[in-house]
Model the fold of this input.
Amino acid sequence: MKEMQKEIQTTAIDTENKERKRFSADLHDGLGPLLSSIKLFVSSLESASEDEKSDMIKYIKELLDDSIKSVRTISNNILPAKLAKKGLIEAIKSFSDKLSMSKEINITIDPEIDTNKRFDSGTEAILFRVIQELINNTIKHAEAKNIKISFTIADDRLNIHYTDDGKGFDVEDTLASNKGLGLKNIINRIETLGGKVNIVSNKKQGTIVDIWVET
Done:
């Protein structure tokens, strides 16, 4: 039974990693050639005759249309349908419930705001990925049994308060090393929203992450 529970947990993480690889492949194989073709035509415009320019501009417009369609398709594939339909909190609850089925980790979601509260779609996408990354880091490295995530709003700012009861780590040392890439990505993503991140962790005392973004 324990092996089956562990397998469920591992499968959830593997699925997330596969989605990221697929996203990378979609960008490289789908959008990449279209953008390269557009660049090729634009570079050739200067030396083209008037008749050739007319045809090239037509082709560029068609390629741009195809690129826009490709971006829409990729965007629809990289995030769960529940995020688009129900919003950030419901999507996180759904993701957490699947992981909690493993019995290896207990994830509690404590929304002190309306669970149907919606934010800007771009903000929701970034916050969803950030919280997923925090959960994955806890599962992979912290040896924790419990995770708690709360959502509050004060002074037009959303606060996400994330805690685990894992073994903890040295934040400064981790950020200064190659192992800190995941944390750096989290901080960078939140900063793109104009938000802030505070990470507190001590060995054998778990980890606390506070995220603030404008609503």
